[in-house]
Amino acid sequence: MIINVKTDKRTEMVDITSKVEDALKETGIMAGLVHLYSMHTTAAITINENADPDVRSDISKTLDKLIPWENNYQHMEGNSAAHLKTTLVGTSELIPIENGKLMLGTWQAVFFCEFDGPRHRKVKLTFMKS
Ligand code: ZN
Fold first, then answer.
1. Please, what is the average pLDDT of the chain?
2. Ligand 1 mean position, distance from CA 9 (Å)
């Protein structure tokens, strides 16, 4: 199953939890795992807090500080920072499913991390039944 994500900014953390939950409902799976995979070299997947939006902006700001957009990179396309951030954050997550629901903690949400937007992106979901 594929989830489409449209991003609006160069750097953005988009909460895709409800999209993953909708996809899970469609499968009817009650217990197992879902693997989420960003099919891109400049966009990642992470799980973190969605209650306070400042957490998202703190993560983005800190990544920008660690990996500035301009840094004498050699990659001709000019988006090396986005490639580096993607490698640091990672392109996949694995979430347990119990009672037909994602086993996320109270404050956890699944974020699609855009590092070179705006773009139309795809996340591959693989459900495993147990
Ligand atoms: Zn590139």
1. 97
2. 17
How many structural domains compose the chain?
1
* Per-position b or e across 67-102, b if 16+ CB within 10 A of its CB: beeeeebeeeeebbbbbbbbeebebebebebeeeeb
List the 12-15 sheet strands across, edge first: 12-15, 108-114, 43-49
Residues in the chain: 130
Predicted local distance difference test score (pLDDT) of residue 86: 98
Domain with 27, as residue range(s), is 2-129
Enter the pTM of the model.
0.96
CATH of the domain at 88: 2.60.120.460
Ion ligand 1: residue ranges with CB closer than 5 A: 77, 79
Distance of CA 114 from the midpoint of ligand 1 (Å)? 13
